[in-house]
Input
Amino acid sequence: MPKRRSDKIDVNRAVEGENDFRSRSAAQMRRRLERERRQQNADDGQQKVYREVTIPETITVQDLAARMTERGADVIKTLMRMGVMATINQAIDADTAELVVTEMGHKFKRVAEGDVETGLTETIDPDETLQPRPPVVTIMGHVDHGKTSLLDALRATDVAAHEAGGITQHIGAYQVTLPSQQKITFLDTPGHEAFTAMRARGAKVTDIVVLVVAGDDGVMPQTKEAIAHARAAGVPIIVAINKMDKPGADASRVQNELLREEIQVEALGGDVQAIEVSATKKMNLDKLEEAILLQAEVLELKANPNRMADGVVVEAQLDPGRGSVATVLVQRGTLKVGDVLVAGAVWGRVRRLIDDHGVAVQSALPAVPVEILGLDGTPQAGDEFHVVESEARAREIAAFRVRRDRQTQLAKVAGGRGTLEEMMKGIRDGTAKELPVLIKADVQGSAEALAGAIQRLSTEKVEAKVVYSGVGGISEADITLAKASGALLIGFNVRANPQAREIAKRDKIDIRYYSIIYKVTEDMQALMLGLLDPTFKETLIGNAQIREIFKVTKAGNVAGCMVTDGMVKRGAKVRLLRDNVVIHEGTLKTLRRFKDEVREVQHGFECGMAFESYEDMKVGDVIECFDIEEVKPSL
Output
């Protein structure tokens, strides 16, 4: 039995090198036992778990390792073996990540980053779930023609008294309950800029537009703009001829002026309803409401209230006392307190819902406007909102949209100002291609002459469509309308103001300035030609018959041919005919004469040919060689 060592160690014992003078500590012993146990488990053949790994467009090495439950060092080693040097925090692309996952024995599943939005808007409600909903009406018209006063009369409240100088400062959304218990939702906008800004962001909010025209003033510039905006949105119009209690009011004059703007009212044989009203005297308001309900009945407006809500942000602002407050219009489903929603690039849980009378409510049905409190940021007017099942999903969608918006902004900054050619790429193919144009000129005569000249350029192939023509400098509203309708903006002897120039630069809207009319028509013709697809003309160069098939190690099957007609050229298009039936069309990979690669082989000579990615040739087949020539289009 070994002698127990004493704690004293003298110099002699140390020098003699007794190997048991320093004992192991308890911690060291524990570590050694742990290592041995791990080694034993590994030797017992512990089963490795293979997973299905979801790979987005980009992923960091650390995140990839976590998804595979592998050590980060092992992933880095695998990358190094593939010749990729990456640190643990470095991002790699999806293709590289896919190779790493396969190499380490796991399965992969590729997803696009935008897949987080999948299922938000695609769901279509079955017909049996749809129930009638109130119409959403936007009131538009010229400044001071009585839009807000008319709405006040309909609401039997006094909003106008609270507006600065009697001018509408904000978008208001209100729901009116009629004596028949039917409801109408009204949007009161400052002019029509907000209406179009929302539509430019892809929001289809309005069902009907009520165009307010003062009976004494008639059709004014902003009235024409409102008509252009409503027509561009494809929304039915009801005309309310206001101020009919005034001495100079003349409804027939207004109707004739509207006819010049292609608004044909029922009194003149058209299909647009025109109601003579007076907001101050509360005259014929019931007839206006009847006209709205009649139009709504024709539109058959329905929505499913028994689903998760979605809709549109009508207005949003940062309130010093309440935080971010968004006025939203529910379009489908029922919005409830406690719902988690994402609106544009912001998300939040609904803490409170407030209706248009300032009363807190627990829920909001389709076509009901409410204020929401509880968002983590301020969305933009026109942003769509969607209720989602969890905070995690809302946070993920919002984070993706923030990244996407930042990338879009960077791309715009990098690309600078957009060109018309870029804009034209977005024009869809149709039976007649369209070139939408928006005209601003110094005088009315020039605007009308330009509009007429441009419309006369229309042909069966391309239609030049004047979205709006007006007088005065180019304003922010013109840029917004141009963006919403995808139109080219022409300034004739006028210029854009600095704010409009800034917005045009940001949104890549093309503005063209002119001072000579024929120069405008020349440019328009050139642009319309650019919209037409070129036609292609085929020219036969020659034929060759296959006499023999050779198997060449590196080149695959090579056909030994005799040129029987014309000539064959390398790089030309070829067809393989068998019994006069086309069995393959492609390009020549190689054209040889004896062992030399040649450019062309003339009639009566032999040559060797090989096709690009096709080898099923047979003796007796005919090779047809042809050129394709692009023919410029003509109007």
Notes: Confidence is low (pLDDT under 50) at residues 157-171, 410-432. The longest strand covers residues 535-552. The first helix runs from residue 11 to 16.
